[in-house]
Amino acid sequence: MNNNPLSELTPVFFLQTFILELMHASEQQGQKHCEQLIEHIAKTAGCFFEETYRENTHKNEHLDIESYTELILGIKNNIGGKFSLASSNQDCITVTNTCCPFGEQVTNFPELCRMTSSVFGGIAARNFGYAKVEIKKSIARQDGKCEVCIYTNPHAAKGHAGMEYTDTTPVKEINDINELQCRIESSMQRLWHKQSKQISKKHQSPAIIAKSPMMQKILQSIEVIAPTLATVLIQGQTGVGKELIARAIHAMSDRCHKPFVTINCGAIPESLIESALFGHEKGAFTGAIEVHHGYFERAEGGTLFLDEVDSLSPAAQTRLLRVIQEAELERVGGKQTLAVDVRIISATNQNLESLVKQDLFRNDLYYRINVVRLSIPPWPNDRKIYLILCN
């Protein structure tokens, strides 16, 4: 007789049941909704798995092919799969599997293969810059086994079917950079007019000047990442327009009708930064004569831009990490937990990876805010650029 009535309730069984019931529920919303749900779950989970792997292996740099392969095989095999490496080189990794983590039910939901594609592709794109995932064989299609090819070189991927990924999102092909710039500026114009109460012909919205190939690539990235939930880290020298890029991402996102709130973390004294970010209750400290709503609460439903994020104190970093992880906060001096729905865009003119190595910035926070990174080039020593600005 089995003394443990819950002996069959293993983590793998729980995961299978949870995902399959979720699929049943989303089926009623249509296939497109179902695929979007799978994509979102997979990308979010992939970020978490990679972060956990990095913490356990102390890897701060981009993963190499060997580490990437170890990670994706570990993810699938730890949830009940039997994945193994078939072949590997700098351009393509091929893995096979003989046991689906979702069991026989996967034949009823072949869309679940998209979860594998999104986890493998999202992690690969973050580390190699590009990925295309081709599922050649699938247990869901009754092929008897799975065979998955992950291409990390766009030239090697040509002619192969599959989902493409860049950073954490599928690639969108942009043919006309001028058209793209007009779309972004139009979105920013609408946002600027909405937020400005003193708009006039002389008071126009800011514009992004994108004449260099690097800036044009950043415009392409803005359109790709704006509709997602991914956190963004913008790196660049002082004065290159990091806040302008953040506003463009917000303007192009589904949150454009909600607040865009900006805070310069370096301009607020260390003793006040937690109160500024998370708010405080009446009587929390001397001078706290009323409840104060912090920047997170003011940005509810919208975007919070953390400029000079590198200047946050260790205590503030710890609280910020918890808010990002749990999507909830407690005001200083408070006991009530408040749910928050805020997209985080951070900016810095420092090398955060270097600060992490010096133990001046939390490693786990760095990977939370650095799901997508945009590096803004410095001002060019080109007289033509300044003539364009003057005009």
User: How many H/I helical runs?
Assistant: 14
Gyration radius over CA: 23 Å
Listing every helix as H and every strand as E from the N terminus to the C terminus, the arrangement reads HHHEEHEEHEEHHEHEHHEHEEEHHEH
CATH topology of the largest domain: Rossmann fold
Number of spatially distinct domains:
2
Superfamily at the CATH H level of the largest domain? P-loop containing nucleotide triphosphate hydrolases
* Share of residues in strands: 15-25%
Pick out the low-confidence regions: 168-177, 192-206, 385-391
pLDDT averaged residue by residue: 77
Class inferred from helices and paired strands: alpha/beta
Overall morphology: globular
CATH class of the largest domain: Alpha Beta
Residue share in helices?
Answer: 40-55%
Main sheet makeup = 6 strands, antiparallel
The CATH architecture name of the largest domain reads 3-Layer(aba) Sandwich
Strand order within the widest sheet?
1-2-4-3-5-6
What is the number of E strands? 13
**Gap between N and C termini, in Å?**
85 Å
What does this structure look like?
By secondary structure, the chain is α/β, with parallel strands linked by helices. The chain folds into two domains: 11-170, Muramoyl-pentapeptide Carboxypeptidase, domain 2; 177-375, Rossmann fold. It is built from 14 helices and 13 strands. Strands 1-2-4-3-5-6 form a six-stranded antiparallel β-sheet. A hairpin with a 3-residue loop joins strand 1 and strand 2. Helix 2 (31-57) crosses helix 4 and helix 6 (177-195) packs across helix 7 (213-225). The radius of gyration is 23 Å and the shape is globular. The termini are far apart. Residues 168-177, 192-206 and 385-391 have low confidence and may be disordered. InterPro entries: AAA+_ATPase, MetOD1, P-loop_NTPase, Sigma_54_int, Sigma_54_int_dom_ATP-bd_1, Sigma_54_int_dom_ATP-bd_2.
